[in-house]
């Protein structure tokens, strides 16, 4: 037993962090069916990391396809693209430098900061301090544990009231590598507690409503993206009959589950899981929302990247019953966001705006009856992609606050 523990310890201590020396990110521009076929064929024969869309199954004609290519496949990718006549550009020429370059905020790497990418242990400790320093505004609950046994910490922000208040539910960190997302949830909580009482919109929002914030949904994946593989996306659950790990949590909800834009292959980055809510993280969140269905009026889920504000549906091209209102609010929110730094967003229903994909939490929440269901895809449009430098956390969060507050004000007005 002691020996096992010892070897276990050594294994953890020696766990290699993946390095990316010589890797590149390409943007491919398929304009013919033959190009699409070629890209899919390439994806089957070598290990490509799809950045956008999320996997090779989602590649279609006339969309930009951003792929991270490991150094050892570069020659083959160049030759294939040239021979197949696929237009491309290089988005990131030196991948490892981009990874190293993220930490450009000057914040201490050892303490929590709103302008750096905090580790899970920093975020978890922060949930305690932000709660205890703002007892009249913030409360904390654990909605369950992750696959690896970490706590899923949910913060409730709002002026306390005798009767239950209508609420907004917002989560961050579905996909592990989208680090700007948890940074936004932390920023939002801080803004809420520091501007309550001075900012009239925030004050009135938190007087009338509660905002539930889940700073990190996929905690295990987030940890793994810090300790082992910066490009990890999925959960960390084991799959029976496969050595590939993890499920895409945003393909794991019960909304047209695994019918389109999702994979039944456990090795895919868009694996839908063995059943809807097979992931304990999805189940915990779905249970919480189901149990509070009568109070939850809006569901916001924060991803990156692409600068999009999406709403149902993703599992079908049919328009949602509330399409025109959802679109109008999305356009207002995007305009508010753009007003600060000129960052341009596209709004629309997911299927037509990015691609059809079933099993998303946004569609699931909407079909449950949460009308204002939105997915944000934060900065950027692929220059840094998932490797957005820390120096962009502040402007990204500031502009996103305007969009979230715009949606919240609309929800509040329509209670
Ligand atoms: N990039 C996100 C994803 O594919 C977009 C989510 C949009 N909503 C959806 N239900 N697919 O997970
Ligand atoms: Zn995502």
Automatic annotation (TrEMBL):
Entry keyword annotation includes Hydrolase: yes
PROSITE patterns referenced in this protein's UniProt entry, alphabetically: CARBOXYPEPT_ZN_1 (PS00132), CARBOXYPEPT_ZN_2 (PS00133), PEPTIDASE_M14 (PS52035)
PANTHER family the UniProt entry points to: CARBOXYPEPTIDASE B (PTHR11705:SF20), PROTEASE FAMILY M14 CARBOXYPEPTIDASE A,B (PTHR11705)
Domain Peptidase M14: 116-411
Residues of the signal peptide: 1-15
Superkingdom of origin: Eukaryota
Record-level GO BP terms: cellular response to xenobiotic stimulus; proteolysis
SUPFAM superfamilies for the chain: Protease propeptides/inhibitors, Zn-dependent exopeptidases
Cofactor(s) required for function per UniProt: Zn(2+)
EC nos: 3.4.17.2
Parts forming coiled coils: none
One annotated Gene Ontology cellular component of this protein: extracellular space
Main location (coarse class): other
MF annotations from Gene Ontology: metallocarboxypeptidase activity; zinc ion binding
Enzyme class, broadest EC rank: hydrolase
Catalytic residues, chain numbering: 377
Organism, scientific name: Poecilia latipinna (sailfin molly)
Subcellular localization: Zymogen granule lumen
Entry-linked Gene3D superfamilies: Metallocarboxypeptidase-like (3.30.70.340), Zn peptidases (3.40.630.10)
Similarity annotation: Belongs to the peptidase M14 family.
Reaction catalysis annotation: Preferential release of a C-terminal lysine or arginine amino acid
Name listed for the protein in its UniProt record: Carboxypeptidase B
Presence of keyword Metal-binding: yes
InterPro entries, per database record: CARBOXYPEPT_ZN_1, CARBOXYPEPT_ZN_2, M14A-like_propep, M14A_act_pep, Peptidase_M14
Assigned keywords, A-Z: Carboxypeptidase, Disulfide bond, Hydrolase, Metal-binding, Metalloprotease, Protease, Signal, Zinc
């Amino acid at each position: 037993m002691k020996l096992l523990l010892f070897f276990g310890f050594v294994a953890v201590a020696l766990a290699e962090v993946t390095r990316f020396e010589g890797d590149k990110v390409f943007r491919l521009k398929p304009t013919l069916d033959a190009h699409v076929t070629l890209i899919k064929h390439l994806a089957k024969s070598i290990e490509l990391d799809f950045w956008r869309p999320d996997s090779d199954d989602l590649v279609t004609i006339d969309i930009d396809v951003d792929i991270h290519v490991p150094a050892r496949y570069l020659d083959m990718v160049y030759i294939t693209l040239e021979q197949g006549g696929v237009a491309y550009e290089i988005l990131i020429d030196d991948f490892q430098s981009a990874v190293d370059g993220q930490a450009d905020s000057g914040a201490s790497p050892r303490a929590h900061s709103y302008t750096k990418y905090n580790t899970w242990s920093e975020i978890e400790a922060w949930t305690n301090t932000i709660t205890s320093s703002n007892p009249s505004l913030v409360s904390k609950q654990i909605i369950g544990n992750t696959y690896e046994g970490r706590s899923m910490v949910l913060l409730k922000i709002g002026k306390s009231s005798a009767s239950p208040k209508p609420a907004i539910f917002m989560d961050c960190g579905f996909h592990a590598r989208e680090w700007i997302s948890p940074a936004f949830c932390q920023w939002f909580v801080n803004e809420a507690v520091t501007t309550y009482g001075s900012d009239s919109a925030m004050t009135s929002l938190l007087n009338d409503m509660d905002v539930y914030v889940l700073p990190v949904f996929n905690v295990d994946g987030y940890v793994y993206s810090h300790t082992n593989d910066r490009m990890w996306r999925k959960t960390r659950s084991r799959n029976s009959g496969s050595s590939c790990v993890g499920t895409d949590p945003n393909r794991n909800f019960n909304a047209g589950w695994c019918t389109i834009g999702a994979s039944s292959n456990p090795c895919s980055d868009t694996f839908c899981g063995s059943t809807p809510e097979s992931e304990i993280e999805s189940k915990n969140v779905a249970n919480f929302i189901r149990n509070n269905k009568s109070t939850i009026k809006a569901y916001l889920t924060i991803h990156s990247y692409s600068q999009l504000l999406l709403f149902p549906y993703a599992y079908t091209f049919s328009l949602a019953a509330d399409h025109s209102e959802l679109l109008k609010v999305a356009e207002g929110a995007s305009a508010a966001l753009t007003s600060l730094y000129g960052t341009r967003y596209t709004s629309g229903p997911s299927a037509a705006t990015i691609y059809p994909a079933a099993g998303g939490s946004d569609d699931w929440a909407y079909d449950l009856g949460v009308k204002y269901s939105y997915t944000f895809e934060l900065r950027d449009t692929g220059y840094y992609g998932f490797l957005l430098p820390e120096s962009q956390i502040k402007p990204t969060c500031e502009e996103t606050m305007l969009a979230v507050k715009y949606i919240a004000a609309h929800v509040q007005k329509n209670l």
